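user: can you give me the structure for this one chain? tokens are fine.
assistant: on it. calling the predictor now.
[tool input]
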Amino acid sequence: MHVRNKVRMGFRITGHDVILFEERPAYRPPHEWCEYPVAKFTFVRTRRLWRLSCRHRDLKWHEYQRMPTAGEFDILLKEVDADPTHIFWG
């Protein structure tokens, strides 16, 4: 079975936030998909920078301590992709 049938990536934009999430098929019913938030990027207009947050076990967003802000969205997206602390992808 191909991976695309098991995992999908998506994002949602709400106001100044971009939520990156992963989707996987639900156990029951298997034709539905469950969404798992991975990272939240927030544009701080007054400072003209992006802030990065991760979800902890309490299911709340917390500032990502290793690289909390960057002037460019791409820098934070690369940090999430690399995930050197294993907080985003496990």
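assistant: here you go. The beta strands are 8-14, 17-25, 33-44, 49-55, 61-63, 69-70. Residues 3-82 form one domain.
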